[in-house]
């Protein structure tokens, strides 16, 4: 791709970003949009709907940037939680890495690449190919390649230093019922507090979900006081049967569902699942029960750390072992099939980057494709846009697959989906694009390890222009659209205009870590990989990370409300992906030095991936246990600090009922007496 095509892509996306920023600064001040742009503040009662029209609301301002920047790290951690803090640390870490890399790349490697003459390109600067600014343009056997060799060592050292001294935050810190109580009362008498046995409540959850939906629909209809009474038919899909008043019809249906819920709650008492949540009086007691084998038979009493009460994924407990095993197998097959099938859109995208292939396939478009504007848009902008559209369906698909694998908490589902999306993205966005086109038939390189450095050294630099355009198209536009929240804005407008939903339906969103972290780490991989090959990508990445830092601070402070806390457990994913990026850069560097007839530099680069992996092994031993188990020292200190607090008895009372299945709680939808609202299953039985 020539430089003018890249400039066209940059101009288009820069214009979109400025448009999004301007629209955001105007729309966020409109009274009807506060549930779109500040739902967290609405939920906390800090902002209320209201206000009259005035001209100031139509003037764009940048005050949101200052407000997002003002909170200190301690205040941000206190308000937004540890997971949000770790997420923002990804941007801080990336900014430090690529600021250093950008300085070395743009002021040292970039001029050296441009001054080479390996590629014959006599066109003027504006029409030069981007390969002229990559390592491919350095002459074979040139001593200037030793500068690239030195840069690889220095850059690796700086990244490892930042990983180590990043300041990793430490996490804060008879019947089945009779069997559980008897066992823990006997073997943990001083620390055992209470337990809550899990019951099969799938049908009950479905009934309550139906009741929630019907109650919201009924509430919305009642709010339309000025609307004429509507009628519907009682039969199938509202198309058959006698006509009835829709309000009366919904109220009768809601009462019937309530009756069914109460009956199901009474029958659930005998549907115990061999699983229970056990609470302890001290953190130390819980840690002992968690980390030692409870019984002689290791398969009889299996313990694992319980998630927070609101993080529990209840459907898991009603699934049999065989069904879970089959589900995992199905998920593996589905994930593998999706990864392979995604190569089809990747091949389409790569076809768009080669106009000669398009002219061969569609000769009647030859005249249009040779127009300067058309060719620049097709090769510089369209491929990345199409790839991003296909990629947008992957995160929700991975969430669905992860939910079938038997995890007991939503946070575990998100972490599993995050790993799946990251691996999928690295393979289909990076490797599939690198090995497509002329290198498509060399995928068997992975079965010939000795040829991997050579093939990657040939293929990766040739895709530099595509990935620069991808950073601009996917990175800049996506991060700007995160601020505008266009989908939510349109949904809110339709809801207020046609449905007039009440405040009871309002629920602030939580950030989808499973889609955001893989996207950020893909850009990190591109920056590390192309640091030596095409340093021109680094300024575009720095712009992306700068925008992401300030925009996500704003979103965490005003939009997103965390639904669970993992104690920063997403950071190991960031660490591992960074180590992988460094090793990949080293392998490509070895291949580059070999192709450039500099075997000594290739040989001296060999210790670099080995040292990096040794550093990673040390970090795994040193830091990973922090994310898996709470340190004993911290647990005992926290327990001792809370021993004399006056409200501990109240805390124990709450703990005893914290893990009760929410489906077994009383429901209050229809306007009936309190005696009818009480579940047939008494709370003491839960």
Automatic annotation (TrEMBL):
Residues 5-165 form the CSC1/OSCA1-like N-terminal transmembrane domain. GO terms for cellular component: plasma membrane. Residues 204-267 form a coiled coil. The keyword Ribosomal protein does not apply. Its main location: membrane. It comes from the Eukaryota. GO terms for molecular function: calcium-activated cation channel activity. It is found in: Membrane. It is a multi-pass membrane protein. Pfam families: RSN1_7TM, RSN1_TM. Keywords: Coiled coil, Membrane, Transmembrane, Transmembrane helix, Transport. The chain crosses the membrane at residues 6-27, 90-112, 145-164, 329-353, 373-401, 421-441, 528-552, 573-594, 600-619. Residues 328-593 form the CSC1/OSCA1-like 7TM region domain. Belongs to the CSC1 (TC 1.A.17) family. This is CSC1-like protein HYP1 isoform X2.
